[in-house]
Design brief:
Shape: globular
Largest sheet: 2 strands, antiparallel
Strand order of the largest sheet: 1-2
Radius of gyration: 21 Å
Helix content: over 70%
Number of helices: 10
Structural class: mainly alpha
Strand content: under 5%
Amino acid sequence: MMRRRTGSGAPGRLETPPPIAIRRALEEGWAAFRDAALPMSLFTVLVGGLNLLCQLAIRWSGELLLDPFGQPDPVALVLQLVAWLGYLVSNLWLLVGLLRGADGALGGERPRLIQLLTSKPGDLLRAGGTVALVLLVLALVLRLAQASAWMLALLQPLLVGLPLMAGLAAVVYLATDQLFSLPISVLVPMGPLQAFRRSRAAIDPHWIQALGLTLLLGLLVLAGFLLLVVGLAGALPLAACTLVAAYRQVFGLRTAQPSRNPA
């Protein structure tokens, strides 16, 4: 057996994690997205539109923070705080909804739009905590690299680039290592620190394949950005389905066969 499972049905400790089959993950992700394209794309457009409105509100309220007399405008300040809160929540809402929709589609269910829109507060909190933890670790690594470069510049200016290159390599390594931290925190579910450790344990033995999968997901999202709204409405759900398909591979979760006649 490659793994043990806990009584709750969550992925247990990985004894020998299987390698990530990138092509298989993409094929399964595409099949799941094809079966659930309409609700997942509509969800992406709706929540993405809310996110865009929050960004516009942040920019607009930022221009009104000071009144004509140079004094802070309390109304504009409150509006900007609300807009920032909406921006952060909508990002987490989009992530959680897409991960849950992808997991349902890969498990043989047909996710409905109302199910994607009704994310639980606990899921949002775990996802937010996981993202914050990963960003904090990456920021600390970069700050340490910058401090090392500054100290080395005083002693040997010619070698000042070495700590920065090492810091960049460490960031790439850690970011790839945490590829599964969000799916684990949302789908198991699991706390941020536990998800951080579990993702690292699962990916470390097959880091090169995980890096390839990370690059593939990045290309999918980049292609969506190039095609603007229409592209993102398809690229983000497809990337989520591919990521969750790879997650289910590693943790030995069965993926349903795609339907031949999707409604």
